[in-house]
Design a protein that fits this description.
It is built from 10 helices and 19 strands. With 343 residues, the protein is α+β, with helices and mostly antiparallel strands. α2 packs across α3 and α7 packs across α9. 49% of the residues are buried.
Length: 343
């Protein structure tokens, strides 16, 4: 299928990349993992295929995540990964290079912003823009941010959590926290190692989080259990243990509480008139981390506000880029690449 200068929105996340193509919707949702051959530097696999290799590769192949805490940790690998996803979304046989809108966390530095813009242009974009994740998340959740009304968004991604109060198409006050779904997984790994002397991998921790993980001690999953497998640190042999949902709450309590405290901090900085609007509209949660069982209940108990988890929580940011691409004038603060390769 040929593509004629398509407009693309990319949610470049620590855990996954979601690609939106204008007129076609979300066309791609894959883990941001790249498998590379050590000696030659050749890319073996990208996305889901590479994720399946995490922790299982032979010595000559490494499976890496080129993004950490919402920013580029390995520029060259990120550029090659972006090129792969752009080609997969648009097709290799395209006459015109696409225009690309990439989402970034609110707390990134100007150097990190330039790195993302440059990576997008080098990966094949003729023009690249940046938009902050809370703005895109709000648009994707169906919020009209152009009005003089306050809305609060909590976007919990893989590497970062962005909390922002929005009004008149911009961010009034915000906080970016380098805590996300990956940190919940790491907390589970540390807990299992400390309590059971068992070493488990990232994929096992993520499975536990999704299946029985809970952020609220009174959550309905608290009676659930899950058998997990790992390596006993004492004997060095494989071992199976049974973990309860109550234990998952204890394991993730620290990163979950840091998100709740950050939400309270932003509420404390919110101007009174906008605070009144937030009481009326509640808080909207987006991102994969918002789907953790009981998180919305916990946040509601702590803030005494109504909490709404967006319908398409995982794809919200990418869907928001689609809205932003259609009406650039709605969102203030969209940043573009200095190198103009086209209109």
């Amino acid at each position: 299928m040929l593509s004629f200068g398509e407009d693309i929105g990319i949610d470049l996340g620590t855990a996954s990349v979601v690609v939106y193509v204008k007129g076609r919707g979300v066309v791609l949702h894959e883990p941001s993992v790249v498998a590379i051959e050590k000696n030659s530097g050749k890319i073996i696999a990208v996305g889901e295929e590479a994720r399946r290799m995490l922790g299982k590769t032979p010595g000559n192949i490494i499976a890496i995540r080129p993004l950490r805490n919402g920013v580029i940790a390995d520029y060259n690998v990120t550029e090659r990964m972006l090129r792969y996803f752009i080609q997969k979304a648009c097709g290799k046989r395209r006459f015109f290079q696409p225009r690309v809108l990439v989402c970034i966390p609110t707390g990134v530095t100007s150097v990190e912003e330039r790195a993302v813009l440059q990576a997008a242009v080098q990966a094949g974009a003729r023009k690249a823009w940046l938009v902050e994740e809370p703005l895109a998340a709000a648009l994707g959740a169906g919020i009209n941010i152009s009005e003089a009304t306050g809305h609060m968004v909590v976007d919990i991604g893989g590497g970062t959590t962005d909390i922002a109060v929005l009004s008149l198409g911009g961010i009034v006050c915000n906080k970016s926290l380098r805590v996300g779904g990956d940190h919940f997984d790491e907390a589970i790994i540390r807990y299992i190692r400390r309590e059971y002397n068992l070493m488990i991998g990232e994929r096992t921790a993520e499975e536990l989080k999704i299946r029985i993980g809970t952020a609220c001690p009174n959550g309905w999953l608290n009676e659930d259990t899950l058998d997990i497998r790992g390596r006993d640190l004492v004997s060095g042999l494989p071992k199976v243990i049974t973990v309860t949902a109550q234990e998952s709450y204890g394991a993730m309590q620290e990163p979950v509480e840091s998100v709740v405290l950050a939400v309270k901090e932003v509420l404390e900085k919110t101007p009174p008139e906008l605070a009144a609007d937030i009481i009326n509209h509640g808080i909207v949660m987006t991102g994969g981390g918002s789907l953790l069982n009981g998180f919305d209940t916990l946040l509601s108990q702590e803030t005494r506000l109504s909490i709404h988890v967006a319908e398409e929580a995982i794809s919200c940011v990418a869907l928001g880029t689609g809205v932003a691409l259609s009406s650039m004038n709605v969102v203030s603060g969209i940043k573009s690449s200095n190198r103009r390769v086209g209109a």
